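Extended Data, panel c. Modelled sequence:
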Amino acid sequence: MATATQLEAESGVESGVWWLDLGGVNAYLADDNGDLVLVDAGTPRSGQAIAEGIREAGYRVFDVDRVLVTHYDLDHVGALSKLGLDAPVYAGRADAEVLAGQRNPPATNHKGLLQRVSRPFVSTPDLPIRPVVEGDRIGSFTAYHTPGHSPGHMAYVAESPSVAFLGDLVREENGELSASPWAISYDTDEVAQSIRRLARHAPDFEMAAMGHGTPIMRNGGERLRELADRV
């Protein structure tokens, strides 16, 4: 069962962002000026947990207006075809092509090979899949291409609510951010470049919401810039 925790904005004000802790991986909900946005969709076994988390946040699955996918991985797109959604799915162009079944991940890269092996466990969702590129605006969110963990990895940043959905570009452990490690990334040099570029170009944000670890609710942009100085 997922736990839906509403993140608090500055001074304890409710943010309109909910953390769905799926056990080892995170998904999120965001109220974007009245539109309900689901960010990432867990593993193929996460469907019921996500639906319960949506209800716990006070909504129903069919209230979801759109889905933002940070990247194609078994534990981030696995339940898309199992939730009964009626909403478009936005994903970085290269990863959208994999999600839509238009191409296979490359077997010549260790991470690509892992994605290829796990692909039979991910059903292609019968939903509109809309490719996203750098600078696209999706509601209040601006998309930033942050490759390295995967070729089409995207981060989505908004000023209201003041949040950055960072996917697996970074991880959180014991309150510290770290870059996506080699074992689960296509290219760690590219990961580092993406972190530095995002820290430099994205507007400041309070909440940093990553795929693995506990979301940071205060000074998220500052924490990302600190990581950018270290990588």
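The chain has one domain: 3-230. This feature is highlighted in the accompanying rendering.
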